[in-house]
Design a protein that fits this description.
The chain is an alpha+beta fold. The chain has a single domain, classed as Nucleotide cyclase, GGDEF domain (Alpha-Beta Plaits). The protein has four helices and six strands. A hairpin with a 4-residue loop joins strand 2 (about 45-50) and strand 3 (about 55-60). The longest helix has 12 residues, at about 60-70. It starts with a helix and ends with a strand.
Amino acid sequence: MARTSRLAGGIPSPLGSFRAKRQIGAGEPWLRLGVGLDRGVAYVGNVGAEAVKDFTAIGDVVNTAARLQAEAAAGEIVMSEGVHAVAHDAQGSERPVDLELRGKSEPVRAWVVQLDRR
């Protein structure tokens, strides 16, 4: 079983009643959002001074994931080549794209996974 499938499949879904209450069709994403994934080193922790502190993640990998997420349509996962290399057998249809991302000098190869709608 794919690593991504194991991760997603292991999460209990309280959404059945939510879907029924909201009368969302089976072919529609229940929450209209897209996901962007990249892998690498990020620095995570509290940033700031005594009066103003914020828990955040910083680094190129964080910026790239945010840019990939901006390219994702509702119900899509857009993943970098690095993520695709370790999770290429996700359940759903996938297609490669070369994206021009802000802050990147070269196009970034990414993979778009359109999740199977149930």
